[in-house]
């Protein structure tokens, strides 16, 4: 019934299997990829015609994780998968970026690539499997895809590269790298990474290792395509546009050359727009006689702009704004510009600017993430916003798109490796980057501004981090690598290569290519040039703030951490949380305790923290016989007063231990709520505490000499019916007690001793 085709290879110690022909047969291409026990289905569909007037390539990639893949039911009210999570959005971009450049110029048919995680084993990351499945599905679909590509994840541990580590182990205590690479047989197409300050050579070695492994995947996909590929689409012959380009060049070539010599972005855009308007006027006669020719000619304006800019860079080494190839635009940085934020920075590089703020919070502010791996909590967040006014445009405001999520995550990866451990700095950290101007690499401005704002907030980062965006102009064998690219150099160039790191090494590297890949020689040159640029930017940042401030802002909450024995956790929490709620209500401080006995006390008022800390110490500390404590009367009975001391312990001050003279009524000495000073006289085997007030100076808290003569030991007393009234462990013997009553003894008299609980009586 099914014409199933299968290819399997051993890869990284596991079997990778690609299947087609059994599932999703109505799609143009569908592949079920299995690696370990992780299974991803990718289906590709393509429109057979182009919408009228469409002049762009509408490729859409959707990656979705099914909770059933991990044997879980989604949280929330609806209990079903809903809006794409950040991870799903980022993985969709991860698939899109390397495949998009591999479609031919002028191909405008709409294509959907949908990847669904059907099984997840908890170890094999589904993003790499999805990239492979998408490449295979596109390759066999018949659409004009100039692939296939392979993909691999690389870790770096103890000086050795490892293939496809899990996300949990890639950056653990010994792991130093999480790198994802997509590549064709001949060249690297895309790089995404987070690293713990690796050198340029170590990063290059990781990319080369990943490329070698990706080639194995390319071979497997080709084997599958030889069995199951559909008939390739026939494309219209490519039109010779030489004559149109010559006409356009003669009409506005000089105007565009002059426009791209203007260093100011606004002036340059105005001049370019004027040249485009001139082209419309020059070919206005075609608008009625041959509308298709007219539109086709105007579409070439962008190509002419690219030709002028690229030619100037390759031939003369002249960039749009007059800089040298390795020159960074002027930088101005300042911190502490916003008075009420916990940390703030304004970072300006040329015509790119970011306002970055850092907010410190408690554990309550952590981000809860519900994914295939289960619930997890994130204590470092970085959010990036790109309002339309930053590029002088009118547009939708307030919507967070895929691009904003991607740029924010890139900056997050750059800064995360230098953060202190959560144990050393127990705050939740949120960095917010609002781009106020943009003309090239606002994500790297976010890295620099975000780093400065955290240092301004007193986050003790290990070392400052800076970032820079590199560009590439590639024509045949000739190429030029550009440092700190402008927006136009990004749009008209062939590469967007972002590198961030500290003086010790690289923390993140991201590369996107618009051509069919780049060589290791070009990447090596770009990394070398980027290192010099990063070092220069770090120097400019240091002029504003060289290291983190020694304390957090006065507006930030203070957090103090203490460790208690795990056996005492129940005592601090209390039945149903009664004790910990009381601590919070009485002191005003927030108190969080984990399963390991780590307690975090937070408040903007240090007195509240000290009060809560003292209370908790009182609960977990063991009382010492002979030691004096401050206490509070919490209950009064006929025979004495119960006093709470050390925060969570109660003891009895018998009426005989209140003063050296006789006390007729307890309430003559103390009332509920009174603050008193007590000495611990005895702790019995059941933990019950006997206290004394009479041997402590209630004003100074100093111990007084016990001047009262010791009482004679009590023996059998006549008239009480004989018999010792105390049973085992000091408890009453009911039979002898009754005998005592029959013997005429008055148990309501006799100096108060008979009102004392048995365990507190003298021997």
Write a structural description.
- The chain is α+β, with helices and mostly antiparallel strands and 763 residues long.
- It has six domains: 224 residues, GHMP Kinase, N-terminal domain (Ribosomal Protein S5, domain 2); 74 residues, Arc Repressor Mutant, subunit A (Orthogonal Bundle); 214 residues, 2-Layer Sandwich (Ribosomal Protein S5, domain 2), CATH 3.30.230.70; 60 residues, K Homology domain, type 1 (Ribosomal Protein S8, Chain: A, domain 1), CATH 3.30.1370; 88 residues, Nucleic acid-binding proteins (OB fold (Dihydrolipoamide Acetyltransferase, E2P)); 33 residues, no CATH class.
- The chain contains 17 helices and 29 strands.
- The strands form six sheets. It has an eight-stranded antiparallel beta sheet with strand order 8-7-9-10-21-20-18-19, sandwiched between helices. Strands 1-2-3-4-6-5 form a six-stranded mixed beta sheet.
- β18 and β19 form a beta hairpin.
- α1 crosses α10, α4 crosses α13 and α10 crosses α11.
- The relative contact order is 0.07.
- The C terminus is likely disordered.
- Its cofactor is Mg(2+).
- It comes from Aurantiacibacter sediminis.
- Involved in mRNA degradation. Catalyzes the phosphorolysis of single-stranded polyribonucleotides processively in the 3'- to 5'-direction.
- Belongs to the polyribonucleotide nucleotidyltransferase family.
- It is found in: Cytoplasm.
């Amino acid at each position: 019934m099914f014409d199933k085709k299968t290819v399997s290879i051993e890869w990284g110690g596991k079997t990778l299997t690609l299947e087609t022909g059994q599932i999703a047969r109505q799609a143009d291409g569908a592949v079920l990829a299995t690696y370990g026990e992780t299974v991803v289905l990718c289906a590709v569909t393509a429109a057979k015609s182009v919408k009228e007037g469409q002049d762009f390539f509408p490729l859409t990639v959707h990656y979705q994780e099914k909770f059933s893949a991990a044997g879980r039911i989604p949280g929330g009210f609806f209990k079903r998968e809903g809006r794409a999570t950040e991870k799903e959005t980022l993985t969709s971009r991860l698939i899109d970026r390397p495949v998009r450049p591999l479609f031919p110029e002028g191909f405008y048919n709409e294509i959907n690539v949908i990847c669904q995680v059907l099984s997840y084993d908890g170890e094999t990351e589904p993003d790499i499997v999805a990239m492979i499945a998408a490449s295979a599905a596109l390759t066999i679909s018949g659409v004009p895809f100039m692939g296939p590509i392979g993909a691999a994840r690389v870790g770096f541990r103890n000086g050795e590269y490892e293939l496809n580590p899990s996300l949990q182990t890639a950056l653990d205590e010994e792991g130093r790298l999480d790198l994802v690479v997509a590549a064709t047989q001949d060249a690297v197409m895309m790089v995404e990474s987070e690293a713990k300050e690796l050198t340029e050579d170590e990063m290059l070695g990781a990319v080369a290792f990943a490329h070698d492994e990706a080639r194995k995947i390319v071979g497997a996909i080709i084997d599958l395509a030889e069995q199951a590929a559909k008939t390739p689409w026939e494309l219209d012959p490519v039109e010779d546009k030489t004559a149109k380009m010559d006409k356009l060049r003669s009409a506005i070539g000089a105007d565009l050359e002059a426009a791209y010599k203007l260093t100011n972005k606004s002036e340059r855009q105005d001049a370019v727009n004027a040249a485009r308007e001139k082209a419309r006027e020059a070919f206005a006669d075609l608008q009625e006689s041959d509308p298709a020719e007219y539109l086709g000619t105007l579409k070439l304006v962008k190509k002419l702009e690219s030709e002028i800019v690229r030619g100037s860079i390759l031939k003369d080494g002249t960039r749009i704004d007059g800089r040298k190839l390795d020159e960074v635009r002027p930088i101005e940085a300042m911190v502490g510009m916003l008075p009420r934020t916990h940390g703030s920075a304004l970072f300006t590089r040329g015509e790119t600017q970011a306002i970055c703020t850092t907010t410190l919070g408690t554990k309550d502010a952590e981000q809860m993430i519900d994914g295939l791996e289960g619930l997890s909590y994130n204590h470092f967040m970085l959010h990036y916003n790109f309002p339309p006014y930053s590029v002088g445009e009118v547009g939708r405001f307030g919507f967070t798109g895929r691009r904003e999520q991607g740029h924010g995550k890139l900056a997050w990866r750059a800064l995360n490796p230098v953060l202190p451990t959560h144990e050393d700095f127990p705050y939740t950290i949120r960095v917010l980057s609002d781009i106020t101007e943009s003309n090239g690499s606002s994500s790297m401005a976010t890295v620099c501004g975000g780093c400065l704002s955290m240092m301004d907030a007193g986050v003790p980062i290990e070392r400052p981090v800076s970032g820079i965006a590199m560009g590439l102009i590639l024509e045949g064998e000739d190429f030029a690598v550009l440092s700190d690219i402008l927006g136009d150099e990004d749009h008209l160039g062939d590469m967007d290569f972002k590198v961030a790191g500290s003086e010790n090494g690289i923390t993140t590297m991201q590369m996107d290519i618009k051509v069919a890949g780049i060589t290791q020689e070009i990447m090596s040159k770009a990394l070398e040039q980027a290192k010099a640029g990063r070092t220069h930017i770090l120097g400019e940042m240091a002029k504003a703030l060289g290291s983190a401030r020694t304390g957090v802002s006065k507006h930030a909450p203070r957090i103090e951490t203490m460790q208690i024995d795990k056996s005492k956790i129940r005592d601090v929490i209390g039945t149903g949380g009664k004790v910990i709620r009381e601590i919070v209500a009485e002191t005003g401080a927030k108190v969080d305790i984990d399963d390991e006995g780590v307690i975090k006390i937070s408040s903007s008022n240090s007195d509240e923290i000290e009060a809560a800390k003292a209370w908790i110490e009182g609960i977990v500390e063991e009382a010492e016989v002979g030691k004096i404590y401050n206490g509070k009367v919490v209950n009064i009975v006929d025979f004495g007063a119960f006093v709470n001391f050390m925060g969570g312990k109660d003891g009895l001050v018998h009426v005989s231990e209140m003063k050296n003279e006789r006390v007729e009524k307890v309430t003559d000495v103390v009332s509920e709520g009174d603050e008193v000073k007590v000495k611990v006289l005895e702790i019995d085997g059941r933990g019950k505490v006997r206290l004394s007030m009479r041997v402590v100076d209630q004003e100074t808290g100093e111990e007084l000499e016990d001047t009262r003569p010791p009482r004679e030991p009590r023996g059998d007393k006549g008239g009480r019916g004989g018999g010792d009234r105390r049973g085992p462990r000091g408890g009453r013997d009911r039979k002898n007690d009754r005998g005592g009553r029959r013997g005429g003894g008055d148990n309501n008299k006799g100096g108060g001793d008979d009102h004392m609980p048995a365990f507190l009586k003298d021997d």
